[in-house]
Amino acid sequence: MSGTALWAVVLAASLGCYLLKLAGLSVPAAWVDQPWVARVVDVVPAALLAALVVVQAATAGNDVVLDGRLVGLAVAAVALAFRAPFIVVLLLAGLAGAGVAVLSG
Amino acid sequence: MSSLARSATLRDAIGLGLAVGLYGAAFGAAADAAGLDVWQAMAMSVLMFTGASQFALVGVLGAGGSAPAAIGSALLLGTRNTVYGVRLVPLLRPRGAPVRAATAHWVIDETTALALAAPDRRLARLAFVAGGATIYLTWNATTVAGALGAAALGETARAGLDAVVPAAFLALLWPRLRRSFPGAEVQRRVALGGAVVALALTPVAPPGVQVLAAAVAVVLAGRPGRRRPGRRDAPDPEPGPGEGRS
Questions:
Q1: Which of residues 57-96 of A touch B (CB under 8 A)?
Q2: Would the CB atoms of A13 and B71 count as touching at under 8 Å?
Q3: Residue A59 parent element (H or E)
Q4: In a shared domain, residues B212 and B115
Q5: Which chain B residue has the Cα nearest residue A14?
Q6: Which domain does A5 fall in, by range?
Q7: B168 lies in a domain?
Q8: Closest CA relative to residue A96, chosen from A74, A80, A78
Q9: Do B163 and A68 touch (CB under 8 A)?
Q10: Among candidates A36, A71, A40, A67, which has minimal Cα distance to B167?
């Protein structure tokens, strides 16, 4: 994607997100207190984040690719299970990913 | 209001703002990894200022996703803030279009949690403003630091950064999967469903679209009108603007 196209994405999404915030302060509460809104708000984050985990860790374009990212993810999962702080989780995952890159040349 | 309650409110707001800073650095690095330059990363934190949407947008772009898929993912996550706004109106009572327009920009997970947790309306406003200001400044400063830091990395360190991005998404997802999270069972099924759909669509869908499709599929799979036991009106007070950890 070109720099101009990236800017268009950044600005359009920013404007849209701002309007969603403004809508909450501006429209009657009954418009927002809808079952479908509640459903979206409740389930979208988990679905989207889980999809992003998989796509970022194990794919490249249309291919499933297994590399150091998956090792980093496994390390991160263990760290999270032990309730490690966010920064520690990221550092361990990064070290694992870099380590695999070094070992595999 | 007592000065004790006031300083406790300020302490919570500022403490949360500082904790959120780490997530800003992770966002800056993820934006760099996705091919955004430092100015674009900064523009997102200045203008969008809602962490989950920001992370989703760079996540989809990083996967090679199209503009509509990236924007769609950000907007889907942004719907949370609409609901927060409705909860905040009775507390903050923003009067007049300029005040409302300015207030809207800081309606995110953390400021909503801070305002809802405050013992009365005046403290709710204080918590919202102090939390919003602290988080806004910290989030933007650390975004720049993360983006510049990532841009300066060498080749081996870049391989490490590639592993940091999915780990960051997992860390954002993790609190929703914990047993203590309201409706954790539903959240786990949703997360598994999203992951399976995304992986299954990867070979056939245009890159990035599988992320948006996973979210849409999971929403459609829910039964219309069913009120989930795990539905929350207030977010966790932790961390990352807008995304909180979600």
A1: 57-59, 61-64, 68-69, 71-73, 75-77, 80, 86-87, 89-90, 92-96
A2: yes
A3: strand A59-60
A4: no
A5: B48
A6: 1-33
A7: no
A8: A74
A9: yes
A10: A71
Chain A residues touching residue B183 (CB < 8 angstroms): 42
- B56 within 8 A of A48, measured Cβ to Cβ: yes
pTM for this entry: 0.85
Query: Does a structural domain hold residue A17?
Result: yes
Tokens of B82: 């609409």
Residue B215, domain extent: 178-229
What token pair was written down for B74? Answer: 């950000």
pLDDT, tens digit, for every residue of B105-125?
A: 999 999 999 999 888 999 999
Q: Are residues B139 and B194 in the same domain?
A: no
- The β-bridge partners of A60 are A63
What per-residue confidence (pLDDT) applies to B231? 45
Name residues 34-53 of chain A within 8 A of B (Cβ).
35-53
> Which residues in chain B land under pLDDT 70?
1, 223-246
State the best of A4, A32, A56, A87 to mutate against chain B, taking most chain B CBs within 10 Å. A56
Contacts of B187 in chain A (CB under 8 A): 43, 46
What is the pLDDT at residue B107? 97
Total structural domains within chain A: 1
**Least CB–CB distance from A47: residue in B35, B161, B218:** B218
What is the helix (H) or strand (E) element at residue A60, kind and residue range? strand A59-60
Find the residue in A nearest to B156 (Cα).
Answer: A98
Q: Specify whether B185 is located in the same domain as B153.
A: no
> What is the structure's pLDDT at B237?
46
